[in-house]
Amino acid sequence: MAKVSASDFESVQAAIDFLSEKDEKRELVIPSGVFETGALHLISDLTLFLEEGAVIKFIDDPSVYKPIWTRWEGIECYAMHPLLYASECENITITGLGTIDGNGQAWWEKFARIEQEDRVEPREDYEWRLAKLNPDYKERTGGGARPSTQFLRPPLIQFWKCKNITFANFTLKNSPFWTLHTVYSEDITIQKVTIKNPEKAINTDAIDIDSCKNVVIQDCLFDVGDDAITLKSGSGKDGLRVNIPTENVRVSNCKILASHGGIAIGSETAGGIKDVEVKDCQFLGTQRGIRLKSRRGRGGTIENINLENLEMDGCWCPIILGMYFAPGILQHEEVTLLSIEAQPVEETTPHIKNIKIKNIQAINVRSTAAFIVGLPESPIERVSIDNFNWSLAPAEDLLETWNSEPTKGLFHDENRGIKTINISNLTINGEAM
Q: Model confidence over 409-432: pLDDT tens digits?
């Protein structure tokens, strides 16, 4: 094995480039200390070992991260280069007790200003650079990250079309955008990884498994500013064009603290998401525990999802199966996408079916016990919820019920129990509903 230390080179990338010339297995050791860097490109047959006390810290200048063809919020386009990136590689391991730091504060502040100004068009040079490459940018919808501005922030880590990948033991923090994003990849293990982003750092999902298969996530800790374990497969017509599902995912023994959704499936669902098992996890202060979400225009089917042995404390809503996810909808789309009347069934109509949920213990529920709302033209089908025990938080800790799920107020009332609309073949604790 070729083995080198990053301290022997002028940069981390220089050490990787040196190893790329070696026709054997490669190991790059990051010793204790802070290593500041721009974008990093990994190579096949590489072990990146982060010693305890080692920190890879990325420059926070958007102009450093040049355009790259990728998938951003479910649609293929040009976006800013991921901070740490691997493309069409195999046999990569990132491990050790060190830290990879996305240095996200400046990124979050820039996006906060965009939201405060309610800006919807490009302004900065690095935004116009992307706009020129993405001629459809004005029509782009998203999950709330304002793609029409072309401030397409980079994920901290992205693996694109890779195989046999292992992430173990290290810490990720302060991501500018999604933290660990795998796209069109397979045979992925994520074990004993800690991911921390501030609660108010918007769009900082912990893990986004995007049109991937054969994934194991276990013994991890997530404390982030958006969804935690997130499964996706592309959005709308572009996702249908690619048509690659996320499938065969196993999650176990994870702890999730602050996040918008603990186990979040969607809302980018076009390629389908299927054969998922989640068990033996804790959700402490998580806004939503189980969160399956889609809407008209997203397409695809969420199916064969098994969730069991989950403990929740202080969640806003323990169980969400919803098809009216509203963030990112353009104003002129609301009449159709959020209509409570049946719309024509099209290729972009989403579907949810074959969901099994059991052994859920939820205490101190702050909003609603469960929010299960399908589309009138596409009801949620075949759901069983067994041994679901829940109790509300004290009155002073309760939130208004619209906090359960962002639907622009649709379907929320004073009921804090189990809300069910447009669903067929539902059983709860053994009783047909």
A: 999 999 999 999 999 999 998 888
